[in-house]
From TrEMBL:
<protein>
    <recommendedName>
        <fullName>Zinc-type alcohol dehydrogenase-like protein</fullName>
    </recommendedName>
</protein>
<comment type="similarity">
    <text>Belongs to the zinc-containing alcohol dehydrogenase family. Quinone oxidoreductase subfamily.</text>
</comment>
<keyword id="KW-0862">Zinc</keyword>
<feature type="domain" description="Enoyl reductase (ER)">
    <location>
        <begin position="16"/>
        <end position="338"/>
    </location>
</feature>
<dbReference type="InterPro" id="IPR013154">
    <property type="entry name" value="ADH-like_N"/>
</dbReference>
<dbReference type="InterPro" id="IPR011032">
    <property type="entry name" value="GroES-like_sf"/>
</dbReference>
<dbReference type="InterPro" id="IPR036291">
    <property type="entry name" value="NAD(P)-bd_dom_sf"/>
</dbReference>
<keyword id="KW-0479">Metal-binding</keyword>
<keyword id="KW-0521">NADP</keyword>
<dbReference type="InterPro" id="IPR014182">
    <property type="entry name" value="ADH_Zn_typ-1"/>
</dbReference>
<dbReference type="Pfam" id="PF13602">
    <property type="entry name" value="ADH_zinc_N_2"/>
</dbReference>
<dbReference type="InterPro" id="IPR020843">
    <property type="entry name" value="ER"/>
</dbReference>
<dbReference type="InterPro" id="IPR051603">
    <property type="entry name" value="Zinc-ADH_QOR/CCCR"/>
</dbReference>
<keyword id="KW-0560">Oxidoreductase</keyword>
<dbReference type="Pfam" id="PF08240">
    <property type="entry name" value="ADH_N"/>
</dbReference>
């Protein structure tokens, strides 16, 4: 049986532990049905990687492979594939219910895969799929915003955590859709990053929102996209949102939140999880293929840009532990990418 190199785990340990992520060799998979076999060129690290790997009292009989952001080349296709052929350059986030991409080759359902932006290298492309899909679905599906700038004139959105992975692309997409974008950031470098990537204004998420919004000329915001500490920001969001406004979050709560705070304003609250479509095999799963292709077209047209800030090489346990450590700190700006087969 052909084998391949990968990085996995059998125990859930603190990232400082040398066995929290380990170099392994496993069987090379074979594509069936709608699956593509992709030669992995670059991967990026997201908070979901850190959350799944976090210490817990559990062991795996076979090594578990993490990783949900890929750019690479199609090596082979399953019998039901119609969207791609061997040699195609692709990028995607995959499914959290399947083995991840921290390996030389990776299987993924072609219906959640897009054609890689031609203007980006593999590392630049790998920085985008999970965060860009999250931002796109949140803005245009969950919050129901129009993609037309003419429809959004005078509409405001507050993006909490504007300098992180999702925030860095959400600010760009929202600005391109004609929204007035207010991002939260607390440090000079993250403030500058947010302003360079689509935010027109910034406020500090460690201070009350509404007084800061009023100081820059806003009595409320029409939409809020929360990318950090939902329960901690709940009261501030409820105060800052406009009557009949909408709030979307991607961050699970650690404590109960009081929905009554939204009642008098008839505010909508909705979750966004990019993995929902692949987890449940929803009838509209191919929407992620279409979204990634639309994003690639916008990138190649110069309307959006990569959020890559750090490149590591090669893909091995040492570099993955370093990337996890940085993401776990909660202070990263943009995205960390590991190049595996960069040539």
């Amino acid at each position: 049986m052909p084998t391949m190199k990968a990085v996995g785990l059998t125990r859930y340990l603190p990232i400082e532990h040398p066995e929290s992520l380990i170099d392994i060799e496993i069987e090379k998979p074979t594509p069936q049905g709608h699956d593509l076999l992709v030669l992995v060129k670059a991967i990026s690290i997201n908070p979901v990687d850190v959350k799944v790997r976090a210490p817990k009292d559990r062991t795996e009989a076979a090594p578990r492979i993490l990783g949900w952001d890929v750019a690479g080349v199609v090596e082979a296709v399953g019998s039901d594939c119609t969207l791609f052929k061997p040699g195609d350059e692709v990028y995607y986030a995959g499914s959290i219910t399947r083995p991840g991409c921290n390996s030389e080759f990776h299987l993924v359902d072609e219906r959640i895969v897009g054609s890689k932006p031609q203007s980006l290298d593999y590392a630049e492309a790998a920085a985008l799929p999970l965060t860009a899909l999250t931002a796109w679905e949140a803005l245009f599906v969950r919050l129901g915003l129009s993609q037309s700038p003419a429809d959004n004139e005078g509409t405001t959105i507050l993006i909490i955590g504007a300098a992180g992975g999702v925030g860095s692309i959400a600010t760009q997409i929202a600005q391109a859709a004609g929204l007035s974008v207010i991002g939260t950031a607390s440090k000079p470098d993250s403030i500058e990053w947010a302003l360079q990537h689509g935010a027109s204004y910034t406020i500090n998420h460690y201070e009350p929102f509404l007084p800061q919004l009023k100081a820059i000329g806003f009595t409320a915001v029409d939409y809020i996209f929360c990318l950090n500490a939902t329960d901690q920001h709940w009261a501030q969001m409820a105060e800052a949102i406009a009557p009949q406004g909408k709030i979307c979050s991607i961050v699970e709560t650690n404590a109960p939140v009081d929905l009554k705070l939204l009642q008098s304003k008839s505010v909508t609250f909705v979750w966004e999880l990019m993995f929902t479509r692949p987890i449940y095999g929803t009838p509209d799963m191919t929407e992620q293929h279409d979204i990634l292709n639309q994003l690639a077209a916008r990138i190649d047209a110069g309307e959006l840009r990569t959020t890559l800030t750090t490149r590591l090489r090669p893909m091995n346990a040492l570099n993955l532990r370093e990337a996890h450590k940085r993401v776990e700190s909660g202070s990263t700006i943009g995205k960390i990418v590991i190049e595996h087969n960069p040539s």
